[in-house]
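Continuing the series of single-chain predictions for the mutant panel. This is the parent chain; the variants come on the following pages.
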Amino acid sequence: MLSVAAPDGVLLVDKAEGMTSHDVVALVRRQLRIRKVGHCGTLDPIATGLLLLTIGRGTKVQDLLMSEDKEYVGTLTLGTSTSTQDRQGDVVEAKPVPQLSESAIRAAFEKFRGDFYQIPPMVSAKKHAGVPLYKLARQGKVVEREPRFVRVYRYTIDRIGLPEIDFSVVCSKGFYVRTYAHDIGEVLGCGGHLKSLRRTKSGRFDVANAITVAQIKETPREEITQRILSLPQVSRMRGA
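Parent structure:
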């Protein structure tokens, strides 16, 4: 019986809600029967959308892919701030939401356009003295975090139905959309948190071309491998 060659390249996956990025990696490892699988850019469990998985020798371009700009659509809920800056956290403060005008909301978003510094949330994978911040947060610890330089290239406000605001944002590597939602809520004076998030693009790669988690579970190995972009394809798509 001929053995199937181990694939190399990048698989675009549409991550389901409730899964960690590592859950998706573990699923693909099982389905493809290959150990060498990595991911580019962690998505929180509440987030859905585009997750780039590097397969085999594809792991060598992981850093390049992680450095590219990302596009998200999300929903900000005003009036409550949470410990994680998203809906999964404990409510730490609740305030009434005033009758905000569209111009006031737009002015708050404008404060976070272009280049600025963002303080990473305590519940994140960023490390402090070699320990992930989320592990320290579980112990009830709060440590000083180094602000990181980020960029918002553009945003849109897609729906205002207070206390909710739907938005899209195109941002640089290392940008925390949870913190973006939290900070906009602070500027508006009533606090806020991220209700939902979906990554739609990473560099030139689009979630419209991704395989879903449900499809991965149901699709034969050979058909999944056909969805893997080869390294030359990835290079061409990146314009390299």
